[in-house]
Amino acid sequence: MMAKVTLRNLAAHKLRLVLTAVSVVLGVAMVAGTFIFTDTMSRQFDDLFNSIGKGVAVDVRGKQIVDGMDATGAPVRPPVPAAVLDRLRTVEGVKNPIGNVTGYAALIGKDGKAAATVGPPQLGVNWVETGGSSDFKLISGRAPAGPAEAAVDESTLERAGYKVGDQAKILLQGPTHSVTIVGVIETPNLMGATVTAFDTATAQRLLLKPGFFSDISMDTTGVSQEVLRDRVAQVLPAGMEAITGKQLVEEGKSDIEGFLTFFRTLLLVFGLIAVFVGAFIIFNTFSMLVAQRTRELALLRAIGASRRQVTRAVLGEAFAVGVVGSTLGLAAGYGIATLLNGAINTSDEGGLVFTATPVIWSYVVGVTITVVAAYFPARRAAKTPPVAAMREEVRPAQRTLRLRVIIGTVMTVGGAAAVFGGLASGTLELLGVGAFLVFLGVTMLAPVISQPVIRLLGAVFPRLFGTPGRLARENALRNPRRTASTASALMIGLALVSGINVVQASAVSSIGQSIDKQFGADYILMSETQMPFSPEAFKAVSQAPGVERATALYMGQINVEGKALGVQSGDTAGLVAGGRMQVVSGSTQLGKDGILVSEDVAKARKWTVGSPVAAQFADGARQQLRVAGIYARNDLLGGAPVLPLETYLAHTAQPLAVLGLIDVANADTATRQGVERALAQFPNLQLQNQAELKETFQKQLDQLVVLLTILLAMSIIIAVIGVVNTLALSVIERTREIGLLRAVGTSRRQLRRMIRLESVVIAVFGTLLGVVLGVAFGAAIQNGLADSGLQVLSIPVPTLAVYVVLGGVVGVLAALWPAWRAGRMDVLKAIATE
Amino acid sequence: MTNTAPITAEELNRPGAADLAARAQDVSKVYGSGDARVVALDHVSVGIPRGRFTAIMGPSGSGKSTLMHCMAGLDSVSSGQVLIGDVELTRLDDKRLTRLRRDRIGFVFQAFNLVPTLTALENITLPMDIAGRKPDREWLDTVIDTVGLRDRLRHRPSELSGGQQQRVACARALASRPEIVFADEPTGNLDSRSGAEVLGFLRSSVREMGQTIVMVTHDPAAAAYSDLVLFLSDGRVVDQMGDPTAEKVLERMKGFDRPGSDA
Ligand SMILES: Nc1ncnc2c1ncn2[C@@H]1O[C@H](COP(=O)(O)OP(=O)(O)O)[C@@H](O)[C@H]1O
Ligand SMILES: [Mg+2]
């Protein structure tokens, strides 16, 4: 019987349930899309690694000594001497051992720009005829031979605008290299990586070190990979290791899986935020449906339905909405994934990966959120006294808000504490839980807050818009809970967007301040992608007219007390001047074994001037260093210890310059043009003065804000649908009142204005709540990160003001349809006495 | 006024009939079609004399509300004409009709008369506020004092009794000095004492202020407050009665309650 009631109700309220389902659909779509898309990417990477590892039974490589990455993002390992290759040939079971060379090489396009930008690695390799880890085939042309030839993968060649026979330049760690492109290589789907191949001797010279390989891969004559690995291991010199091909593939996969997991989690967080916002809409809709059906529910109770049955009838409806919403969401998610995959992958092999995971997540998330959100209205429905069926007018008892205030305050305060705790300890989860609690707490408090705020916001309405204005304000005030939960849905998205904007503005100000304070050079040299670049650039720059000093800043890693420690290096005098380093104690005369450490590091490690530091370099060499000086916190150079340049270079196979500080005699246009001309063969590098540097940072941060805002757009859209839903239901609920207003002479236009203003005031309230909360979050984050470079709090008032105005616009848009409906309402139906 | 036969369409157009506040000429109203076809009004012609309290009586389903809705511009007619003063409603679009209702007509319904978010006073001045007109202070005071609600003006409808709510509704209907007030069973939801208060008030507004009021009712006691009773049966005006008393009306009504009689 009750099932029938549920079904009939679903049929009777199709429209509002569709609107409710939409709020489930959007959130679920994001969640499902995330899984389908990342699963697909994961499969494509797996394919790549599988194809790379196909002919490899065992791989020999240097043992990693220090945690660190090279310019291609691969771990830094000592290279394998070529002599090992000969020794491996004598091992029984080894078939066709091949020495591989891998390093950084980026093709400069016809337009003078590097062919690829940020992201996937740009690899240089040695051309290997058959087998090997680089299992390449020629599509056209021939294999590279000699120092002036290279072969390039097909899609890179296309992007760079070359064809076989063209001259091209290639960026390397060393000097830029000119080649003739002699061949095109067919590769598996490289997921955006680029490959340039040289003959082995050239590759060794350009990418690594003559007489050395990055690794040696081999096939087996028949023995198992494990057996072969153990045999091979026995002939290896110290510092080398052998791993099976399977392990090699797994390592590749798990590296990528780490990145994909991060990416998936990020998207999932935004999807779940959208789902969470959807919960407010569901809660509101069901609350209103229950309120409208009070009489019917009371009748059911009067004729003997138990509370449980009534609850179940309402929850049954929610379940159905959840199932429908999840199904549509799953389908929409598939669509999103298709779009994303199409945007990122040019060659779409095998289509999307569709596993059970997105299906399970979609239904669990969608149905759970709907049923949980509808639970409270359902319980209220069950509490309907049977006598309500007989009452003339059903006025639901306005329960006291006191308990709400207490719980809301506790949640908000607890959440805020968790936010601060999370920031202090750097625990993102705690921060997230704190923010979530604050949202819930503020939502609980919102009905109380709404009264004075809406009274204030609507104070001008009667004067500006007459009676419709006054009615609109009163309507927004009459059901504080409804207004509040509608506004809260909007609040969440806006709080996050505003918070991000506050952090961004603070970061821009902080960076600007740091640049002003610490930037002692005339120009800074960086690669556009902010990846490490070739130190060769400095040789070119130093020869430009008017250049007084060009200092490279290098990055690296050493082991201290068995743990990796990030270090930097460069000409000490140049760094001190260009970075305005202030030495607190000791001196900057480093000699061969002196290091400069920051105050923070010195304090943490209890080092003083003269303290010995036992260090091991990436090449395995050990050396006793000593603290020569201690410098004050420096925003440009960070806090990493500074090694003497000579010592750094002596132990680093591929020195990685991360930026350059350039002093000139006279910072005029002529000098600058001279420097830029000197850098012509490094199109990936960018010369910037202080103002330009600030602008670059601002632009990058702006992009980040845009990206995050797009990710939050779904939540905001759902919230807007919530406003539409609430208004539409309110209009239905107030049928009689609207009819009465029409009967006594309210025009359709006045009626529409009334609905519109109500919508605007709710939307602006939600926006304001969000902006205020966002500023609070932003300020908390700034405060928490004040010691990590976010020293200035900056509130972007104009941007936030624009949001509030947009909130009003959203209100107007959300009211379009409900207002239209209200205007068309049949006057007679409205005043009919049943 | 003596007991006369129903007014005919011709009579309405007599020159002497100029003092009618509203009239319906040969009005029919048909709902639905085919099997579901209901003729709610069947060629009805009535005139509402200005400055009088007219009651429309009839059994349930006889078309009273329909007639009132049509005459008040709340509903369209299937055929015939409706005039308020000399304005023919059947020719007006929604915008003009709305304005006419706002400026020239007052309403009292059986229930749901007041906007719950507005105070009693705000409800009373609502039509004028919507029009953006300033209420006539003096007149407003007179009306408020007549309904006897001065100490309740700041209350919301939910804080008023049913009788008080209906009195507020009456005050609203009168406050803008409309040409005519339509009331559909204004006492239908009230106990007899509250009902008597409301009816007394309506009558005195006619007697003392010269208001024109049309009231739909099925209660003979209520009809007795009026100056003239029109009897409706099966969508037709079947009779009228001047200076009614409850007994006379009841007697007349008994005729309709027996199916097949009279009409
Ligand atoms: N919207 C409608 N649709 C169909 N029939 C209607 C509608 N409104 C009224 N009727 C019918 O018209 C007739 C007159 O109704 P009504 O004017 O409400 O009578 P009264 O007010 O005298 O009780 C009744 O038979 C009623 O069923
Ligand atoms: Mg009726």
Supply the number of helical segments of chain A: 24
| Fraction in helix of chain A | 55-70%
Radius of gyration of chain A equals 33 Å
Total count of strands of chain B? 10
Q: pLDDT average of chain B, as an integer?
A: 84
Classify the secondary structure makeup of chain A into a structural class: alpha+beta
What profile does the largest beta sheet of chain B have?
6 strands, mixed
The helix fraction of chain B, in percent, is 25-40%
Distance between the termini of chain B: 23 Å
How would you describe the shape of chain A? elongated
Q: How would you describe the shape of chain B? A: globular
Q: List segments of chain B where confidence is low: pLDDT < 50 over at least 5 consecutive residues.
A: 1-6, 258-263
Q: What is the assembly state of the chains in this entry?
A: heterodimer
Query: What sequence of helices (H) and strands (E) makes up the elements of chain B?
Result: HEEEHEEHEHHHHEHEHEEH
Structural class of chain B: alpha/beta
Mean pLDDT of chain A, to the nearest integer, reads: 85
Most strands sheet of chain A:
10 strands, mixed
In whole angstroms, how far apart are the ends of chain A?
26 Å
By DSSP (H or I, 4+ residues per run), the number of helices of chain B equals 10
Sequence-ordered SSE layout with sheet pairings:
The complex is a heterodimer of chains A (834) and B (263).
Chain A: H1 2-12, H2 14-52, E1 58-62, E2 80-81, H3 83-89, E3 94-100, E4 102-108, E5 122-126, E6 137-141, E7 149-153, H4 154-160, E8 167-172, E9 177-186, E10 194-198, H5 200-207, E11 212-213, E12 215-220, H6 225-235, E13 240-244, H7 245-292, H8 294-302, H9 307-344, H10 356-382, H11 402-425, H12 428-457, H13 461-478, H14 480-518, E14 523-527, H15 536-542, E15 547-560, E16 563-569, H16 572-578, E17 583-586, E18 594-598, H17 599-605, E19 612-616, E20 622-631, E21 642-643, H18 645-651, E22 656-664, H19 669-678, E23 685-688, H20 690-733, H21 735-743, H22 748-784, H23 797-824, H24 827-831
Parallel strand pairs in A: 5-10, 7-9, 16-21, 18-20
Antiparallel strand pairs in A: 1-12, 1-13, 2-11, 3-12, 4-5, 4-8, 6-9, 7-10, 8-9, 14-22, 14-23, 15-16, 15-19, 15-22, 17-20, 19-20
Chain B: H1 9-12, E1 20-31, E2 38-49, E3 53-57, H2 64-71, E4 79-84, E5 87-88, H3 94-104, E6 105-108, H4 120-124, H5 126-131, H6 137-147, H7 162-175, E7 180-184, H8 192-209, E8 213-217, H9 220-223, E9 228-233, E10 236-242, H10 246-257
Parallel strand pairs in B: 3-8, 3-9, 6-7, 7-8
Antiparallel strand pairs in B: 1-2, 1-4, 4-5, 9-10
Magnesium ion (MG) binds next to helix 2 of chain B.
